[in-house]
Every structure is written in C-alpha cells, then in structure tokens.
Amino acid sequence: MLEISNPAKFKIDSVFLNRVEKLVLAGEKKEGLISLVLVSPQKIKSLNKKWRDIDIATDVLSFELDKEKTLGEIYLCPQFIKKRYNEWQTETMRALIHGILHLLSYKHDNKKQLEKIISLENKYIRQYGKKYSGKRN
After folding, report:
1. What percent of the residues of the chain are helix, what percent strand, and what percent coil, each to the nearest 5?
2. What are the φ/ψ torsions at residue 19 (nearest 5 degrees)?
3. What pLDDT, on a 0 to 100 scale, did the predictor assign at position 137?
4. Are 12 and 38 in contact, with CB atoms under 8 Å apart?
5. pLDDT at 135
6. What's the burial of 71, exposed, middle or buried (CB within 10 Å: 0-12/13-18/19+)?
7. Which of 118, 36, 108 is CA-nearest to residue 77?
8. How far apart are CA 119 and CA 18, in angstroms?
9. Prediction pTM value
10. Average pLDDT, the chain
11. Contact call for residues 75 and 60 (beta carbons, < 8 A)
12. How many CB atoms lie within 10 A of CB 37?
C-alpha cells in the first residue's frame, strides 16, 4: 500500500503512483506499506547531504524501515524529474520503481547489481505500458 504525502502540493496523479507501486510489489511477490513523500529540490538536497553526505539534489531517495509490514519511505522530487528529463511520466515511474527496489534490498554497488536494477526498472515500465496502455492514468 502506498501512502502519499505531498506537503509542497505538487500536482501529481496518485492513481498512477499507486498502480506503479502495486505492479512492482506484485512482481516481486512482496507486500507492505510504503510512505511516499513528494519534496522540493531543496528538501531532497538536504536529505541527500544529511544521509549520504552528497550535497546535490536528486530524483529519489529510499530509506528502509525496520517495522512490521512497513517497507520504508521514498522521497521523490517531481521538480527535479520534470527539469531533468523529457518524458516526465516514464522517469517518475522509473524513479519510483528504483526507490521501491531499494526498499526490497536491491543495491547497485557494482556493475552487476546496477545492470540488475536497470533491467527490473525496464521490465516494470514495459509491464505498466502493456497493462495500462490506453487507460487514463
């Protein structure tokens, strides 16, 4: 289940985000609560600096939580995605999938792990397109 918090009031399609989350969790045979927080570039930059010691904005950050039935928190920056990428919906989907995969313990500390996570991102983007093609998001 995806719990969305949008303190900065970004215009976002919650049905789209929920569909992506359900698709990935079903594909990975996992379940649990994910808290998705939509934040500004300034906020995600400060989180990135605090938790990863990287002083730049990014599209997505994930934090696993050690709680029963809660997978973790994902911070997504719609403004960063919109500014950086041409295809906003696909890249938002990719960022959310990426964040979910991290919550499910996927890493990309080496080339093999990175290839795996990119492969899974592409798989779920294709599946979403097949499942919801022509449907209003």
Report:
1. 50, 20, 30
2. -65, -45
3. 45
4. yes
5. 55
6. buried
7. 36
8. 21
9. 0.90
10. 92
11. yes
12. 19
